[in-house]
Design a protein that fits this description.
5-stranded antiparallel sheet; 389 residues; globular; 2 domains; Creatine Amidinohydrolase
């Protein structure tokens, strides 16, 4: 029996709108085909959320409405079920290409381009996602083609979210909030960090408001003495009286992430922790007061940094970054010197985490959406230092 197509996250016209934006960039460069290899970009253009680590690519053709999805043969069923693409536009490559040091799935992509008579055209490649060997493979087998870098084109397009995407990110944010509150409910002295994270992850999977989480993004739980580490996970240790816990998690809906950070104190917090909380909270609120369409990202960062320094703490890291599919979008940062003009429906992780010494740090953040007149805070968990008995 043929595989039955499942319900799509977004309507077909939404994906065609995104493809039209890609094709407009292709037309500017007189590009006949764009080879998309970044997993987040593949999700954005097709709806595919299968987390396959095998070589796969979406080929956008200037002459064709739908893209062509080329992937390992065993992943065809997922592509049919998850994407809006017709079965005829989904091509599975042979198992013979697996584990071969000289050949891989990109050979199937090149074969397709040659079969379409595109071996002499202008072809865009997301070169930053290719190994050196794979990039050389394209250049070596497409000797007559004019190959150029297409790496950041889709990233820039997806920086501006549609209202449909914003609705999904609100669902993800509600899951993030639920995870933060679960942490406050379950973390107590004597509890293993592993057991605490199990409860939090359970909430991220169960979801909120009837909408389950559809993926588990790596949760970062950094407890004393690891609170100076921003990106470590739970350990084999046990939470103790006086412990501080820095938690960074993200609710996920259809690969759209809404990150959030909160800090917890098991027992009475130190004066230093109370002071940095007040400083970073002031910085976050100062940022929220100036973020709006038309603001310059670097200027927003300057105001945030100025505010935290006024309260006695110099923040060394950037104040945020663009978010969406697969957590972070590698385009715009809220950092000093960034000249990006903020636009409606850009989404950011406004991150007031600060790691002031190797053995001390603190986290506080929100997922936000830029609006014409200001900002919508997508995450809504209490903006507090959680003090647990």
């Amino acid at each position: 029996m043929p595989v039955v197509k499942g319900p799509q996250v977004f309507p077909r016209w939404e994906y065609l709108r995104r493809l039209a934006a890609v094709k407009a960039r292709m037309a500017e460069r007189e590009t006949v085909a764009a080879v998309i290899t970044d997993n987040a970009h593949i999700t954005y253009l097709t709806g595919s959320v299968a987390h396959s680590y095998d070589t796969r690519a979406v080929v956008v053709l200037a002459s064709r409405e739908e893209p062509v999805f080329i992937l390992r043969w065993m992943d065809i069923a997922a592509a049919v079920q998850e994407t809006f693409i017709d079965r005829d536009s989904i091509i599975g490559y042979s198992e013979e290409l697996m584990g071969d040091p000289d050949n891989n799935g990109y050979d199937a992509v090149i074969d397709f381009l040659l079969e379409q008579g595109l071996g002499q055209g202008s072809i865009g490649l997301e070169l930053c996602n290719l190994t050196v060997d794979s990039a050389e493979k394209f250049k070596g087998r497409l000797l007559q083609a004019r190959i150029h870098d297409f790496s950041h084109v889709v990233t820039r397009i997806r920086t501006l979210k549609s209202d449909l995407e914003i609705a999904v990110m609100r669902e993800a944010a509600a899951i993030s909030d639920a995870g933060v509150l679960t942490a406050a409910e379950v973390m107590r002295p004597g509890m293993r960090e592993a057991d605490a994270i199990a409860e939090i992850v359970g909430t991220l999977a169960r979801g909120a408001n009837g909408k389950p989480g559809t993926w588990i993004a790596t949760p970062f739980l950094c407890a004393t003495s690891r609170i100076g580490n921003p990106h470590t996970t739970w350990s084999e240790d046990t939470l103790r009286e006086g412990s501080q816990v820095n938690l960074e998690i993200a609710g996920v809906r259809h690969d759209y992430h809404a990150p959030i950070c909160r800090t917890y104190s098991l027992g009475k917090p130190s004066d230093r922790l109370l002071r940095i909380h007040e400083a970073q909270l002031a910085g976050l609120e100062a940022g929220l007061n100036v973020i709006r369409a038309g603001a310059i990202s670097g200027e927003v960062a300057r105001i945030i940094h100025k505010t935290t320094e006024k309260h006695g703490f110099k923040k060394q890291s950037r104040a945020g970054y663009s978010i969406g599919i697969d957590w972070m979008e590698k385009t715009t940062s809220l950092k000093l010197g960034d000249t990006t003009v903020l636009e409606p429906n850009m989404t950011f992780h406004l991150h007031l985490g600060s790691w002031v010494e190797e053995d001390f740090g603190y986290v506080l953040s929100e997922s936000i959406r830029i609006t014409e007149t200001g900002v919508e805070v997508l995450t809504k968990a209490p903006r507090q230092l959680f003090m647990l008995d």
